[in-house]
Amino acid sequence: MSDLGHLLLTNLTEAMRQVQQYIVLALGTSVSAAALTFAPSSPNEKPGSIILPGTFVAIDYRIALVFLLAISGLAGAMAYFSAETANGTAHLISSRTGTAAPDLLLAASTFPGIATSPHAAVRYIAVLLPLVFSLIALLRTALKERPVAWDAVRGWLIFLAVCYLPLAIELRHPVGAS
Q: pTM value?
């Protein structure tokens, strides 16, 4: 294998690894956001402060919820950028490495991850789950408030859709598929 082929293959595997990590981060933060809304409290009690992992300062649970939802959305956007890079690198491998391209792409497609799954359902569920958990967190929080801030809910939904829709489109085929 040429140096170029080796470099492209290394970059492709790293991009696929990043897709996996960002999707897992998005799922973890959205599940945490949803779980935060299920924290027990009495009807007359104001929600307390919590400490987010990685921080040392207690913050209001609504601020924590905003952080978690924002991280989830941004992780989805970063997963999209990594998936786009992976698909671009796969295209470069097929166009620049000549007859070795099919073998290199076949080897790269054995990387165990969401982006290389041959099943579209796996890729789409991985993109949809963070959205579902974020929606649960948004609706549970909004419905606790009176009056319900539907404009804020719509704004968050637009933000999350802008972050995850391109990822769903980019992952419609496994990375490296022709």
A: 0.85
3-state secondary structure the chain: CCHHHHHHHHHHHHHHHHHHHHHHHHHHHHHHHHHHHCCCCCCCCCCCEECCCCCCCCEEHHHHHHHHHHHHHHHHHHHHHHHHHHHHHHHHHHHHCHHHHHHHHHHHCCCCCCCCCCCHHHHHHHHHHHHHHHHHHHHHHHHHCCCCCHHHHHHHHHHHHHHHHHHHHHCCCCCCCC
Exposure string over 74-90, b if 16+ CB within 10 A, otherwise e: bbbbbbbbbbbbbbebb
20-32 pLDDT tens trace: 999 999 999 999 9
Residues 85-106 have a mean pLDDT of 77
Contacts of 178 (CB under 8 A, 6+ apart): 94, 105
Contact (Cβ atoms closer than 8 angstroms) between residue 84 and residue 175: no
